[in-house]
Amino acid sequence: MLFKIGYEFDFTREANAMERIRHFLYENNKKSPVLVPRLIRDFVTRRVLVMEYIDGIPILNLGDELAKRGINPAGKMAAAAKQ
């Protein structure tokens, strides 16, 4: 159990995953509606993750924000997935 917790909280792993996701999004959709912050690699360690600040809507509030703007999330996701 302790190994799993340590594995989950290794921010170098998180940084690598962020870079893979960022690369995938921008290679497959030049104007991705999802922004992934750029890492500041010189400051990333197992215990510290430093990235650029991007002002936006927290992902946990995304459903409410889409509804407030009258956007059908199924339609947007389906359209983005086809690109």
From TrEMBL:
Residues 7-70 form the ABC1 atypical kinase-like domain. It comes from the Eukaryota. This is ABC1 atypical kinase-like domain-containing protein.
